[in-house]
Specification:
A 4-stranded mixed beta sheet has the order 1-3-4-2. The chain is an alpha+beta fold and about 80 residues long. Strand 3 and strand 4 form a beta hairpin. The termini are far apart. The chain contains 2 helices and 4 strands. The model has no long low-confidence stretch (mean pLDDT about 90).
Length: about 80
Amino acid sequence: MSTNFSVIGHMMVPDHQIMSVEEVEELLNSYKITRDQLPKIYHDDPAVKEIGAKINDVIRIVRNSQTAGRAEAYRQVVKRPKK
């Protein structure tokens, strides 16, 4: 028995978006950081796989926040290291 389940569609999973090259450059310039300084997310994360992100893409994660209203986080997609 096979069940199709959308990770992104679940109410507990925040919105994940692949950022364009221009958006990434603007982000890095505004925070005065390099790509290597961004937090990481593994390429095999279920949400990353579902949106079709590739290694080195930058993901914007948008959450609803009771205090801030809307909170954005950014992650660079990296390959999970072998054990």
